[in-house]
Structures are given as C-alpha cells and as structure tokens.
Amino acid sequence: MPIRRTYRAGMARVDRVRRWVARISGLARHTVGTARPDSPAVDYRPRADGRPDPGEIVWAWVPYDEGDGRGKDRPVLVVGRRNAALLGLMLTSKDHDRDAADEARHGRVWTDIGTGPWDARGRPSEVRLDRLLVLDPATVRREGAALDRRRFDRVVAAARRVQGW
C-alpha cells in the first residue's frame, strides 16, 4: 500500500510539473469545466491581415489530452480572446461519429463543420467542443481560412452548451 500511495503522489507531482512547463513555455493548454466567471469573450472578426483573429481557422501546436508534453500541429478555430491569448477549438478530419460511444465515455464532444480551404485535401472536418485551448498568438504557425459566420455561430453555441459558458 505505501508504495502505491508514493507512486500516486509522485505521478501527481509529475503532472503538475508538466502543466507548469507547458504554461511557461507558451504552448497551448486547455481548460474544461462548467460555467465560470472568466467565460471567454467570443467574437467573430476575421481579417485578412496575416494575424490570427476570431472566426479564422489557424494552425498551431496542440498538446495531447494526456498532458505529457507531446502534441501535434493541427487546425484550430479561433473563437475569441482572453487578454493577449487566443481561445480556440481544435479541428480534426477523423470521423468521430463512428466511435461516438467511446468518445462520449471519455467526455469528448464533436460537431461536424463540413469542408473548407483549411484542409488541402477537402476532407470534412469536426470541431471538438469540450476542450477550450488557450493559445499564445506567437505559437500560431499559419493562417488557414475564415469560417463563415453561420457555421461559426453554430459551433460557438454548441461549445457554450457543452462547456457552460
């Protein structure tokens, strides 16, 4: 028993250190939860100025859920700002409808947004609604495309329901 407790305590410390390293290195991090006073300021303002704006799909490094420092460069829908940080929802071309029960068991919620110029191969995309990313604008690799207002509003409304903003 003491070994298990010691192991768990050690792993908890490792997790805290990993989160701290990700935070200070300017990498994306996520928040998940219920209604909170710091709800994101959601805005639709895409501008063709070369800088990431709410309403645009950009490419950025997104950490895996495990929080172990690994991640992937992927498209992210910018939905707003919090101070100098960008707030976003990650996209994928993987179809999660096929394994919806498994996704729900892990608390992951997705919605389809169709195709767009952010995917060079024209594959349909899905947006993850349960994970709000906080991005340093300097970590954004490139601008992908602006999502039309109708789809943006639909995604934001669904994310609000899921996350309780």
Labels describing this entry:
nine-stranded antiparallel sheet, 165 residues, SH3 type barrels, PemK-like, PemK-like, MazF-like toxin of type II toxin-antitoxin system, globular
Distance between the termini: 41 Å
Using the coordinates above, name the CATH class. Mainly Beta
Number of strands: 9
Average pLDDT, all residues:
82
GO molecular function, one term: DNA binding
Pfam families: PemK_toxin
Protein name: PemK-like, MazF-like toxin of type II toxin-antitoxin system
Secondary structure elements and their pairing?
Elements: H1 2-24, E1 29-31, E2 41-42, E3 56-63, E4 71-82, E5 85-92, H2 100-105, E6 110-114, E7 125-128, E8 132-135, E9 140-146, H3 149-163
Antiparallel strand pairs: 1-8, 2-4, 3-4, 3-9, 4-5, 5-7, 5-8, 6-7
Overview of the molecule:
By secondary structure, this protein is α+β, with helices and mostly antiparallel strands. The chain has one domain (26-163): SH3 type barrels (Roll). The protein contains three helices and nine strands. The protein has helices at 2-24, 100-105, 149-163; strands at 29-31, 41-42, 56-63, 71-82, 85-92, 110-114, 125-128, 132-135, 140-146. Strands 1, 2, 3, 4, 5, 6, 7, 8 and 9 form a nine-stranded antiparallel beta sheet that branches. The longest helix has 23 residues, at 2-24. The radius of gyration is 17 Å and the shape is globular. The termini are far apart. GO terms for molecular function: DNA binding.
Short account of what is shown:
The protein has 165 residues and is α+β, with helices and mostly antiparallel strands. The chain has a single domain, classed as SH3 type barrels.
